[in-house]
Amino acid sequence: MKDANHDSRAFIDIGEIVPAFTLPGSDGMPYSPWMYKQREHLLLIILLSTANSEARGLLRAFAREYRSLREEECALLVISTDTVVGNLQAQEELHLPFPLLADPKGEVIKRYTGWDEVDKKVLPSIVLADRYGALYRQWVEEKEEKLVGIDEIIENLRYLNRLCSL
CA distances (Å), 61 to each of 67, 110, 121, 125, in order? Predict the structure, then answer.
């Protein structure tokens, strides 16, 4: 398992403010990391598409544990190259409680992780930013199923919450 602490392919430095963006969600509303700043930690899951079985398995796992993320004061956004309509279909089919954001050209994705524009390939990534918008951890893998587990993310969130309460 690679993460930004040990991977020479880290795309954002630990402690750096995550890049700003505004993307349309599956509900048609715009979403930005700044919507959560100073209120909640932010978990971004970056995928090529929500249509493949590995990505759907990952999304289902996060949907099952969504309450645990919310209990740790964490918002979750998923960014993919799918269209708003494609994301809406996936959200309805999978009954996801979190928004899927559309970035069909990969303009935001390439600021967060590996993006091959010619071959339309994305290095799946999970980005955890603290409530101040600073990158705390970033996990980057070749395949969705190799990304960090939810239990490790919850542990990181609990640690962040302990730091914030000192």
Answer: 12, 25, 23, 15
* Contact partners, residue 6, CB within 8 Å, separation at least 6: none
Which spans in the chain are helix H? 53-64, 66-71, 84-94, 109-112, 150-164
Residue 55 CA neighbour count, 13 Å, CB half: 22
**Alpha carbon separation from 68 to 40, 86, 135, 155, 159 (Å, rounded):** 14, 27, 20, 11, 14
Task: Give tens-digit pLDDT for 51-77.
Answer: 999 999 999 999 999 999 999 999 999
| pTM value > 0.85 | yes
The stretch 32-40 carries a mean pLDDT of 91
Assign 93 to helix, strand or coil: helix
Q: Where are the domains of the chain?
A: 23-164
Secondary structure class of 30 (helix, strand, coil): strand
Q: Bridge-partner residues for 76, per DSSP?
A: 43
Q: Which amino acid is at 146?
A: K
Q: What is the CATH number of domain 23-164?
A: 3.40.30.10
Give the span between the Cα atoms of 144 and 124, in whole angstroms: 6
